[in-house]
Predict the 3D structure of the following.
Amino acid sequence: MEQLDPLSSLSPAELRLLIRQEDSRIRSTTGLANGYQQANVVILPSHLANDFEAFCRSNPAPLPLLYGSQSGETSCPPLAKQADIRTDISQYCVYQEGRLVETVSNLQNYITQKSSRTEQPVMHHCQWSDMVCFYLGCSFGFEGRLKKAGVPVRNVEQGRNVSMYRTSVPCIPTGVFSCPLVVSMRPVPAGLLDTAVEVTHIKPQAHGAPLHIGDPALLGIQDLSRPDYGERVELQPGDVTVFWACGVTAIEAILNSKPSLAFSHSPGCMFLTDLPDSASCSPITNVELDPELTPLCFLVSSNPLFYSLASKKAVAKIRQLEMIIGEDPGERGIRALFLQDELLRSCLALSHSSSVAITTGFPTHYMHSPPDETDGPPGAIAIATMLLSLGKQVTLVTDRRALAMYQAIINEAVRTDVLKTTIPLVTFEDTGPDSALHFLCHHGDPSKPRYDHLVAIERSGRAKDGNYYNMRGVNIRNLVDPIDDLFIAAKDIAGINTTGIGDGGNELGMGKVKEKVKSLMPNGSLIACVVPADYAITAGVSNWGGYAVACGLYLLHTCPSHQRYLKKGLGLEHTSHQKQLQDWTANLPSVDKEESILSTLVHFGIRSGRTAHLAMEVDGLTFHPTHSDIITRLVEITVGSATCNP
């Protein structure tokens, strides 16, 4: 139960006076000065000031710089009136040569060159006139806002300092400063995650939106019960661990850089400013936030638990893409299988991935050689091209019977500049009970997955009876390798997500909507794939789903809110450089590229799905105007009409 504190109603100035008088009631400042910003404080020799300021600029989420003093300055006029940084923090840490040597209630003794609590003389270059103070935003500044918005602040409820953890994520090194990122953790009920994100997003000077939501092990935190700083905070049923960047990162920077003498606040004992927490911009940068960049929170994975963020603007555009690909000119009834935001969640998971395996191939024309159809390979190549442009590793998985053909298709796609570069092409065989595990993981070790995302697009999916059927109900099992086993095995391997893209319900991954397929699609009870994917993207034509994934990835990687989350708030900026943006744009689907790859497929004897025509069509729909129009509209949504044919 939350403890009532008579100090909580006092103003920052009144509290600073009590702190200056060393009032024993003030230990941590969490829950104090509600409505006002609090600050982490670092005090360094002046010769390190430029390096540290640059370090802050390079790592803005953990080190939001509110004010940097002049050498010897004890006040901070932009932040507080009549303040004295030597006395106005309840507990200071003193460091010599990168070691914490003591904690003190004020710094007055260091001004006279000798500490009353230690007989060690302070080194000669520690004159206060040679010291510079840095004031950095603190997450305590948004706790009052969280509470007002109805989000419980567990550390305040429990009367404890917030939990802070050293992560395995390195900050961007600058000058003499380098260190791991430190985060604070607050448990938040799952139903209030969007509220917590929105409330803190508008507080960039207090570390802004969370940097990670979900499993702490993904940050290298192995034991929540043992914080590196602060106190253990208990989770309540239904809570999710939410991590914000933390100004204690600055303390890690001191420990790593080993200055001869330095001071900081003691974690949880902040400097109380007179700045109201209603300010949504830094007093230095004075940059207002764009409401369209407010992040929304989406569950990406349950094993391990992981959420991601994307701006309202990017989410709205990806939902537009989802509506376009759901159009059904072939009148197959695909809208009945639609699940909202499957495209968005798949794109979020792919954005966080590093190694993706893509499979395609539906040998519906069993009476022809090759038996494959023109739906699937173009979408697979569109996804691969964008993933490669974003720096991901990509592997294509195919049937043994089609290996030579797909290698020739890849080579031609590279030659014609449809594909950015060649990609590995592999097959999968069931040679024993652990075949899938050994394919997916190094040495068959589930803790060392080779891929973190599997994508199936217009890939034959296994039915309830173990066979594979085309839409006419013809069994084509003899033409299909058991790649479904990879998706089944992936369900039990933490860290591997799966996406299925289909347009009829008999494709790999559509097991997620199998009941709808059985009841609503022609021959559904026979042909329905029973192997699910984490995300089931349905489209009027499966290729369109591939194009939409490529466009969605582009939108996420040009979304500052998502990029900040992806990069853990580290780096000078969260917008793309022009050269990088041009490369991503050039690797989007285009009418010219998709027409080229379709021509290549026809050249290799691959036929249209519904008609078996050896012609420039997919699923019985001619490339012009149907497919070319869809591509144009998708790219217009993504980058605007001026660049709809990059």
About this structure: Residues 52 and 177 are 7 Å apart (CA to CA). The mean pLDDT is 92.
